[in-house]
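Q: I'm writing up a methods section and want to include an example of the input and output format. Could you take the sequence below and give the corresponding predicted structure tokens, formatted cleanly so I can copy it straight into the document?
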Amino acid sequence: MNVKLGVLTAGALFFLGSQSILAQQKDTIKTADVEEVVVLGYVKRKATEVTGSSVQLTNDKINTPAAISVDQALQGKAPGVQVNASSGTPGSVQDIRIRGVGSLTASNSPLYVIDGIPVVNGNTSASTSISSLSTLASINNQDIESVTVLKDASATAAYGARGSNGVIVITTKRGKKGQTRFNLNTSIGFQNDAYSKRNGLTGAQKYELLEEAVFNQYGERFGFKKSDAIDFMVSRNLFIGGANMWDGTEYNWPDLLARKNAMSNTVDFSLSGGADKSTIYASLGYNNTEATVIGPAFERLSGALRYTNKLTDKVTFETSVNGSWIKQNPILEGGSFFSNPFITKVLMNPWANPYNADGSLNIYDIQEYTSIHNSLYTLANNISRSKLIRGISNTKVDYEIIKNLTFTTRMGIDLQLNDYRNYNNRYHGDGDGTKGYSERQMSTNYNWVTQNSLNYNFRAGDDHRFDLTALFEHQRNQDEGLYGYGENFPADGLTNIASAGANKDASSYFLDWKNTSYLGMFNYTYAGKFVLDATIREEGSSRFAAGKRFGTFWSVGAAYNLHKDLLANVFDVFRIRGSYGLTGNSGVGLNAYQALLSYDADYDGNGAAYASVFGNEDLTWEKNKTVDAGIEFEALDRRLTGSFAYFNKYTYDLLQNVPLSRTTGFAVQAQNVGAVRNKGFEAMLGYDIIKSENFNWNLSANIATLDNKVEILKLDGNGNPINPSAGSSYSNTEVGKSIRYWFMPTWAGVNVDTGAPEWFLNGVDGEKTSNLNKAARYDQGTAIPKYTGGISTNITVKNIFLNASLYFAGGHKVYEQYAQFYMRTNGFTLINYNGVEELMERWQKPGDVTDVPKLSLTNDNFHATSSRHLYDGTFARLKDITLGYNLPNSAIRLLGIEGLAFSVRGSNLWTWVKDKNLLLDPETGAAGFTTLTTPPVKAVIFGVNVKF
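A: Here is the clean output for your methods example:
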């Protein structure tokens, strides 16, 4: 697919491009005498002194009220960064990939660094079956000063073994010298599903299709008319779906379970101030956000305190504490569970009355219709609650030993306390068979980091500037938890495990790991024109065996600021830069290198041990070599900004579980095998179309392309290529192809004469077959987008401002996995459960051209995996649009305040999907499956900001 990188139209400039360090989607006018400072985690550099690829976003770009965690706000704003919602449930984890997918089975998630300290981030939920809970949701976006995304080796090599998937550096706010100032932000709004066009059959439609299916199955054989089909089945007691009891009343389960216009409100208060030697920043925030499915709301209470003091002329002290309390009410959306309310919405029989005659919820008669639970009852009578208490403490002391030589010691502590409670009632749902059951899991994750560093910067003459940093870092993480379970509750209202009457059980776990690193960083600038930097990091991880624990990671980079030399009369800024380096990945299970025994077996009532892990003493780092080169420019008095970059990332010694011969007694062994390459281009262009005192209009856009290919797949002990997708009916992995490309039979439609489903015999074209087992599997494309990007515009007219941003992705395929349930043309959908409205387009007579086969009550293979349910994933989404008004200075002075602004903000208000058959939300996780989970939400939020 060809992508045009620039289009110039009358009166507007439309650009597709990538953010750069010098020009990041900005809506304010940057003065020529103020140079941007880029926060790289361990160090800060002037923009003209950076050789790596990074994107820095200030608070106004990420502070979206509808985005509970900051990663949600990154979508479309950082080229090469793909962000997809795993679920729209408030507080859920976002799926983030920076410059592609490098690892087949190890972690592909970026490293998060908060105020210079690497932290543990991810899903803190107690189970993969329920809604995920992101630890990043514990941080209030209002407390964040900036977010920097580090992408290439020169930018990430400082983080060594954890930098191969990119680094996201979060810097929180600090106090500013001067009179204490206060800031109050309040917002209130409502949310609905952003994109959900999948509709189920109505009761009448289901009845009509069932009559036809019965007639097709038995009509000719037993000689009855279509109108007598239901009576025929009833006379033989063959119905279990309740068709004989349907009185014509329809029940709209999607509407019953949905919360329309789910409310969201936030209140954030902060203060900032300082004297000559000290500054302080403090904040308190509250967020209450309802989900778009019925149930209790998400809540977060957060607070922050940051204090700095210049104790002496040589010693500066800084400390900060960020604390938060989160409560999420997760739903069972992690799979096709009978209590998943989204399964209920789609598959519940529309003949099933959710209520009894007296108005109580129906939990008995509903079993005559389907085995799906009445989610109205389970959501009201079960308890599902996740709580997270998180405290992040960061303390730093700087001591200037001599002029320009500074010793810094820093200690960071990240403490996470998780509490998950789940009670299933004794009458209906998953707890019915056990007379109710209760479970509780409590865990503690303790992350402790110490750093000691020396920084020396000096000049040699007027033109030579050197900056040297040496750093030692030690990180330790401990994760432990306790789990309890019990069932058979004797009375209603008893929900704690202590009241359980049978099968009480308990277990616990303890996990820990350590990282130790030695880092050296060198930066040299000549006359502000030439820049050279180098980084080397020696890092050791307890995840590997002694002798294999340490790896050496490094990078070199160079830049030439031509605007200070050859092109001074043409460009305000023009830079060329390049870098090359080696980073690593240790994202493998703990103790995978060790041969282990497990002791959780039972042998005749006694404890027993068994061999559980084969071990591999040679297991070591997954490695990543990256080449990055680019140009960055600003011209026309900085009204025109842009950049262009190329990257080539080669990941090898992949951490994989390799199949073993069964004679070893083990199924797999962790090994370093295989290689993957990700390469592509990133471009950005932005222009201040109008730039005046009372009217400013800026337009900018970015695009990133990605080519992902597996380059090496070694053989296992049996001489077969190692295939991480082995056994999958959806995907495959092989050399020369994208990771886990879609690999399945090719749908050929419905036979116009017989109404039977057909697939291409050779997997491509030509001869067709109605026997799926005879159809060859074929490469159907990749689940990884080949391009992503964003467009933004910012307009200010006196005191009125309008900002908008759009995100797009394309060149990939997504699979509607649940279509294999609700698009069946047999008794599964027509008797027991429910189908979707597309079934009304079924084949009925010879000559009908349709994609829906002839109806019957038996298995027709239509629901089997094939390209029938594979769709073009190309989409675009209006991420944010904000209209606001700043009260004029004359009015502000009368009120005795410093500022007052009103705004209305929309998020995800519009979604365009290229493939008209893709009816579920196009945002998918890395696997590429659409899911029956809470989709991303569209929101309209009204806000007021007061400064005084």
